[in-house]
Amino acid sequence: MQDNISHSTATCGCACTLHGRRRFTALLAAGALAPVALAQAQIPECRRSRVSGLVPANQVEGTAQQQYVQMLRQAQGQGALVPATHPQMQRLRYIAQRIVPYTTECNERAAQWRWEVNLFNSKQVNAFCMPGGKIAFFSGILQQLQLNDDEVAMIMGHEVAHALLEHARERMAKSGGTELFLRGAAALFGLGGLGDLAAQGATQLLSLRFGRQDESEADALGLLLAARAGYDPGAGVTLWQKMGAATGGKAPPQWLSTHPAGETRIRDIQTKLARVQPMFHSAGKPDRRFQPPAA
What we know:
Blueprint: H1 5-9, H2 14-32, H3 57-77, H4 87-99, E1 116-120, E2 127-130, E3 134-138, H5 139-145, H6 149-164, H7 167-175, H8 178-182, E4 187-188, H9 195-199, E5 208-209, H10 212-228, H11 235-247, H12 262-282
Parallel strand pairs: 1-3, 4-5
Antiparallel strand pairs: 2-3
Helix pairs in contact: 2-4, 4-6, 6-10, 6-11, 10-12, 11-12
């Protein structure tokens, strides 16, 4: 499938891309300092494992920053970093600007993070958020699944939740993989492998995998974040229906996978809608809507 993003990527120089990143990071940082509306203790979805405290957060986040920069540089050198002027890039950053202000309610460190969102031109159906608020989407997940804004917000909320719940730190603490991580390997985030960019050495996010409980926790918190940002949490159901259709039913049985089966996730999301739908109804709604990329 030809990706229509790649043509515009080559027209944007390094200075343009870096300027857009700095400006967007500043906007997100300002949003992250918004007043806390709910105490963390009142949000059960925000509870984190104490095991993660065995691994220094600043070291994890610092290494993640280095790897994210490395990935950006290599993608830019290959013409695979989508420019800030692209409609899909603007779409992701707009949705992030609505979600990020609610992150400090779950993790006080989020106020210090330099949030970034970037889009990579790749057919991989993937997205992730590294420790410290470094978000990446691959164009394949937007194009192949033809996601609407609510579904994109469900993915972004889920990936941001992994970072807020510090699942990478927890996994490293449990596996004793701290030294490996600090030498340059980071956690594998989200919906799958990093694809071509990882295979070519842009990043080494291949050492740790989230478990089923991590994924279920991220689903729950992600729904809440997206709902409070004004996106319909019911889109979590249609998202996983699209995921199932895209895989053609070829996903492994749940007992063979580290992720919950799609049907399980849909049922879990449906049971949580009664809690998050009122948040969505009372939230301010987005004043901009975007279309999926051309199929």
